[in-house]
Specification:
By secondary structure, the chain is an alpha+beta fold. The protein is built from 4 helices and 6 strands, in the order H-H-E-H-H-E-E-E-E-E. The protein starts with a helix and ends in a 6-residue tail after the last strand.
């Protein structure tokens, strides 16, 4: 596992209680360069007992605290990714999702200043809480 002390600090920073499950899930997500499904995460965590309900609750807590985000796949499953780099820096606040049409992996990419983001503030009655952009194509591994 990457630095356990750093992981504990991250959990504290986001107001989350430190548990062995949260430490392992955080470590697993930090090591991944793609968004992971519930099943992906379970398959990577073998050194501790982690049931499905605990994992769902852990992921929900990560999303609610702002530590992670989730994205729906084309077949309506959820994938999870941290809003941090492997070094603990906040990186994914404004980003888009790239979905590979061949392997279905989902990558988080930074938003380019040239990409137009709809301005809902100019229309009365709209309150944007979050946004999501999706790009489709071929990832470097499938290219």
């Amino acid at each position: 596992m990457l630095s356990q002390k750093r992981h504990k600090n991250i959990l504290h920073q986001y107001g989350l209680k430190v548990t062995s499950a949260r430490l392992r899930v955080l470590d697993t997500l930090m090591r991944s360069n793609i968004a992971l499904s519930h099943a992906d995460i379970l398959s990577k965590i073998r050194d501790i007992q982690l049931d499905k309900v605990t994992l769902y609750r852990t992921l929900d807590a990560f999303v609610k605290s702002g530590l992670a985000h989730k994205v729906a796949t084309e077949d309506r499953n959820w994938l999870y990714a941290l809003d941090l780099s492997e070094h603990g820096d906040t990186v994914h606040r404004n980003h888009t999702h790239f979905i590979c049409d061949y392997c279905d992996r989902v990558y988080c990419l930074p938003v380019s200043p040239q990409v137009g983001i709809p301005d809902s503030s100019s229309v009365e009655g709209f309150e944007v809480r979050s946004h999501e952009f999706r790009l489709h194509g071929t990832c470097p591994q499938c290219h």
